[in-house]
Amino acid sequence: MIDKSTKEWQKLPVFIKIWFWLNFLQVRPERKTAERAEIISHIAGFIFCCLGLVNEAALAGGLIMLAIAYLYSILKWQGDRYGIWYEPEAAIST
Predict the structure, then answer these.
(1) Residue 17 CA to chain centroid, in angstroms?
(2) Which of 75, 82, 86, 92 has its CB 3.0 to 4.6 Å from that of 1, i.e. a possible disulfide?
């Protein structure tokens, strides 16, 4: 993770900082949290899309969940690109 007092963090675009804060609501975002949210959103989206064959409202919800899942994949890509992830020392050494 980038130390928030370094020049690398200071030169990141403001929208990237806000993007991570809004999506995680935590100071130390972890990649596994984004990955988990993406997987759950995809699963829920596909289930609701299947239910959409019976109920039109479920289809709309499924499409929204799939869109959220793809937004999380963009978030993961940006996190990898900017090195924003917080990985505890114990997780790195194992």
Answers:
(1) 13
(2) 86
Mean pLDDT, the chain, whole residue set = 80
Cα gap 84→22, rounded to integer Å: 14
Average pLDDT over residues 79-89: 77
Q: Is the pLDDT of residue 42 over 70?
A: yes
Is 59 within 8 Å of 46 (Cβ atoms)?
A: no
- Determine the pLDDT at residue 60: 94
